């Protein structure tokens, strides 16, 4: 009998996720799995519980929540010697990584995925001492994810991010930042609006933001949007929908296994939608850092 630990963020999806978890637990118990549930209360709870679970007699972790919950579970796995496989049950506002991996949303399909046991080793990203499953970023609008209050996420969903982003643009305007990039593939000092260090192609609900990204290639995808006027920026964002923005002259796009980024400005870093400190930072790939069910 396999033992399954569910690590649940109760603020993701609220009542809807409770019903889905109850359904999943019934299917697991009816098929002779042993089930344990843990509900997070504050930041880093999922990280700590993952480390604890990996030290105990469990076989599988189910991460129930949004990208932030998945990030904490991944960081816990990365800091454990016993790297238990993780099944990701998306329950957040955007769920970029689950969407990118095309993970099942229906509980019956999700349960069958666990039963089949098809597991792959995916890459993780690392920035200083933190880890990311999906993306680390800095610059224009990258602080929106952790400025949105949980209550607003629950009520408005993705609209909450749009409202906060619009408010920031109206108040702050578009201000470039001077940044220095150092990697074997690309080194430069320039004024930019945004940089993304991505593990997957789906970021912020845009499925083609890093169109060539692959969680199995042992590389990170770097996207840089240089200083642009409103017209150029509008063209870039329109082209993002087709993944053609990487051909714009104000966009730099390449793959690397490590890059150092620094700035004389105070530049905050967003790590999978959460505040991750400030530059300078070194971003690097962790090949096959986590096992997930697909």
Q: How many E strands?
A: 15
Helix/strand class: alpha+beta
Contiguous low-pLDDT stretches (5 residues minimum) are 151-167
The topology string of helices and strands comes to: EHEHEHEHHEEEHHHEEEHEEEEE
Largest sheet, described in full?
11 strands, antiparallel
Percentage of residues in DSSP E strands: 25-35%
In angstroms, what is the radius of gyration? 19 Å
Measure the end-to-end span: 21 Å
Mean pLDDT: 87
What gross morphology would you assign?
elongated
Report what the structure shows.
It is a single chain. The chain is an alpha+beta fold and 294 residues long. It is built from nine helices and 15 strands. It has helices spanning 15-30, 45-55, 67-78, 96-100, 107-116, 144-147, 150-156, 159-172, 230-240; strands at 3-8, 34-39, 60-65, 86-90, 119-127, 130-132, 135-139, 177-182, 187-198, 220-226, 251-256, 258-263, 268-271, 274-278, 281-293. Strand 13 and strand 14 form a beta hairpin. Helix 1 crosses helix 5 and helix 2 (45-55) packs across helix 3 (67-78). The longest helix is centred in the N-terminal third of the chain and has 16 residues, at 15-30. The radius of gyration is 19 Å and the shape is elongated. The two termini are 21 Å apart. The model is unreliable at 151-167 (pLDDT under 50).
């Amino acid at each position: 009998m396999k033992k399954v630990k569910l690590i649940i963020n109760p603020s993701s999806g609220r009542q809807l996720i409770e019903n889905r978890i109850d359904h999943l637990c019934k299917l697991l118990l009816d098929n002779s799995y042993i089930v344990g549930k843990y509900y997070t209360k504050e930041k880093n709870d999922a990280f700590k519980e993952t480390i604890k679970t990996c030290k105990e007699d469990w076989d599988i972790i189910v991460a129930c929540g949004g990208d932030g919950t998945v990030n904490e579970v991944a960081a816990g796995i990365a800091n454990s010697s016993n790297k238990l496989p993780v099944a990701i049950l998306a329950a957040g506002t955007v769920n970029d990584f689950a969407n990118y991996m095309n993970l099942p949303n229906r509980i019956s399909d999700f349960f069958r995925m666990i039963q089949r046991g098809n597991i792959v080793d995916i890459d993780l990203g690392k920035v200083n001492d933190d880890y990311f499953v999906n993306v680390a970023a800095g610059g224009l609008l990258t602080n929106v994810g952790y400025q949105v209050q949980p209550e607003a996420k629950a009520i408005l969903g993705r609209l909450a991010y749009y409202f906060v982003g619009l408010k920031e643009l109206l108040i702050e305007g578009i201000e470039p930042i001077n940044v220095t990039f150092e990697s074997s593939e690309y080194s430069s000092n320039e004024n930019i609006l945004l940089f993304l260090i991505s593990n997957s192609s789906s970021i912020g609900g845009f499925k083609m933001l890093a169109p060539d990204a692959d969680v199995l290639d042992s590389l990170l995808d770097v996207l840089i949007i240089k200083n642009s006027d409103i017209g150029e920026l509008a063209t870039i964002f329109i082209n993002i929908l087709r993944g053609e923005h990487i051909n714009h002259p104000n966009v730099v796009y390449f793959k690397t296994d490590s890059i150092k980024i620094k700035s004389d400005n105070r530049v905050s870093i967003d790590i999978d939608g959460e505040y991750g400190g400030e530059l300078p930072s070194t971003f690097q790939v962790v090949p096959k850092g986590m096992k997930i069910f697909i």
